[in-house]
């Protein structure tokens, strides 16, 4: 089954910049794919189209939704390079906000926020404030906030690019473990060839702007 598909998708911005496409891409449920390409080739644009934060200029974008509760973001979890946490409120409040906005009761939202925080290794930091956390920890909070609504697809836009190598490597390993445990579809945008090959089952290499698919490579992993 498909989690998302783009067919003949192009995106021209109002200023006339042709940012993307035509792009044809089908992502299967549960797949972890990386989009790899030069700066400005339209990777973020592609993610915004999949998240329906922006409409294509032509072509169609389809995203499969699961049955059941409808939450803001429509089954999409988005993680950006900048964690964009609200500084004046606790880590727990930051993580439970998407649930509160969706009308989930306080106590349930709190329990689910704490569960999401535990899943990223931050069970002990629920009452901390964002400024007390390291860059890697803020990214973990951002990931917990994206996962708390149990999205069908996790979109990650160069999430670890600003972090030091060691933190980045740890987060790569933790993200892989989470992906194996949760079975979510992940679309991961990166500049790093290493990261794309290390993390994903499939690396989609894009051309310079307007981004089209140059190569679509299956990565064979050998489980220990
Ligand atoms: P990438 O994520 O691969 O770096 P982007 O999707 O951010 O690429 O951008 C693709 C191209 O579209 C770039 O040339 C960028 O400057 C341009 N662009 C992105 N967003 C906008 C916008 N809102 N208005 C005009 N041009 C934009
Ligand atoms: P990460 O845990 O994402 O790898 P860092 O590498 O930046 O993050 O931090 C290394 C470890 O140091 C963290 O896992 C955490 O246990 C600890 N740490 C970092 N900042 C703090 C802090 N403000 N308070 C307590 N422990 C911290």
UniProtKB/TrEMBL annotation:
ABC transporter domain sequence ranges: 4-224
GO MF annotation, one: ATP hydrolysis activity
Keywords attached to this entry: ATP-binding, Nucleotide-binding, Transport
Function: Involved in beta-(1-->2)glucan export. Transmembrane domains (TMD) form a pore in the inner membrane and the ATP-binding domain (NBD) is responsible for energy generation.
Family: Belongs to the ABC transporter superfamily.
Protein name: Nitrate/sulfonate/bicarbonate ABC transporter ATP-binding protein
Residues of the full protein shown: 16 to 239 of 271
